[in-house]
Specification:
The chain is an alpha/beta fold. It has two domains: 15-154, 3-Layer(aba) Sandwich (Rossmann fold); 159-389, Rossmann fold. The chain contains 16 helices and ten strands. Helix 6 packs parallel to helix 7 and helix 14 (329-338) packs across helix 16. The longest helix has 21 residues, at 159-179. It is elongated and about 75 Å long.
Length: 389
């Protein structure tokens, strides 16, 4: 099936020469039109902006434009394939921005994988955009890059991190509601310590539980490809040492099998076919499984249900409960841009999660999260984000 989509997609891209084009908003039918759009009239617009740079948001395309910046170092499940090969994904992301949030997004795939150069690049292009979406940049440098760009005056958001975390929290809120469990009672295992796994952890740990989430999660254990992130590990980079500071309070050691004993929730952002029947049988009652590796999840939904899963979510569109960033990022940017926010805060992200969770009608075990093509979700998220600003 995947091969059929690959072939058909290549044919479509070749036919249209990509998925984007730039269209003029104004007509050029006579000298007067030309004088307004270009010289001499445009000089007046330039002078207005030179007096007040903020007017660039109102008098140019900047006010509705987002830069999608990638170095091609972590593209989908394909890995470090470089900037040229990343263009189709960034074009696709731009199409989603336009279709769901009416935002003009420009793919900028750059020929460097040096953190400092990427930071400098984004700072230098910031005057042309209202926001920056960092995309498919590998961990741990993606953390450093995003953190360094938080004070440039426009929102900078690494969707692979925070978009995933926002939607996971929304799905978890509704799953726990159905399972009749509280955040402060549960143990969560996150399998995958890259951009998404780290962001999910940090978001769950920093959530302002004065909202409707009650108290923080009781325990979270994170596993990477070498096992549990624990004190006996001598191979931890700085990002994973930070993970250890807020996880695994009992210093459990071993692999996923040891981590998952007594867990209530499994969140997989790793690779396929890792979760076994024995592991699931060692979990608490009503286990919640978010197996989000693509295209093959950590366990297939039918197997997870056979082994006793109470709720199963994946990243795939051909199963119920698709946990996908598309539910978050268009509305996040729409709300942030409309509110002229200078950065995207945890309060804004939490508001987005709650808006997504609250938008589910007829909540049940096969319907814990909205369908990703429900375009009104973007409006609800945007409104929630604006209020949070």
């Amino acid at each position: 099936m995947a091969n059929n989509f690959y072939k058909e997609s290549i044919e479509m891209h070749e036919k249209f020469k990509g998925k984007l084009k730039i269209c003029s908003k104004v007509k050029l039918e006579n000298k007067h039109d030309l004088s307004l759009a270009y010289t001499p009239g445009v000089a007046g617009v330039c002078e207005e902006i030179s007096k007040n740079k903020k007017k660039s948001f109102d008098l140019t395309m900047r006010g509705n434009s987002v830069a999608i910046v990638s170095d091609g170092s972590a593209v989908l499940g394909l890995g470090n394939i470089g900037p040229e090969a990343a263009i189709p994904v960034m074009e696709g992301k731009a199409v989603l921005f336009k279709e769901f949030a009416d935002i003009d997004a420009i793919p900028l795939c750059i020929n460097t994988q040096d953190s400092n150069e990427i930071i400098s690049f984004v700072k230098n292009i910031a005057p042309s955009f209202a926001g920056v979406n960092l995309e498919d940049i590998s961990a741990p440098k993606c953390f450093e890059i995003e953190e360094a760009l938080q004070e440039i005056g426009i929102p900078v958001f690494h969707d692979d991190q925070h978009g995933t975390a926002i939607v996971v929290l929304a799905a978890l809120i509704n799953s726990l509601k159905l399972a009749k469990k509280d955040f402060n009672e549960i143990k969560i295992v996150i399998n995958g310590a890259g951009a998404a796994g780290t962001a999910i952890l940090n978001f769950l740990k920093c959530v302002d539980c004065s909202s409707k989430l009650c108290k923080p999660v009781k325990e979270i254990i994170v596993c990477d490809s070498k096992g549990i992130i624990s004190k006996n590990r001598m191979d931890l980079n700085q990002a994973k040492k930070k993970i250890l500071e807020i996880t695994n309070s009992e210093d459990i050691q071993g692999g996923l099998a040891e981590a998952i004993k007594g867990a209530d929730v499994f969140i997989g952002v790793s690779k396929g076919n890792l979760l076994t029947k024995e592991m699931m049988n060692s979990m608490n009652s009503k286990p919640i499984i978010f197996a989000m590796a693509n295209p093959i999840p950590e366990i297939m939904p039918d197997k997870a249900k056979e082994y006793g899963a109470f709720i199963v979510g994946t990243g795939r569109s051909d199963y119920p409960n698709q946990i996908n960033n598309l539910l978050a990022f268009p509305g996040i940017f729409r709300g942030a841009i409309d509110a002229k926010a200078k950065k995207i805060t945890n309060k804004m992200k939490l508001s987005a999660s709650l808006a997504i969770a609250d938008s589910v009608e007829n909540l049940d075990r096969e319907n814990i999260i909205p369908f990703i093509l429900e375009k009104d979700i973007c409006t609800k998220v945007a409104e929630a984000v604006k209020k949070a600003v």
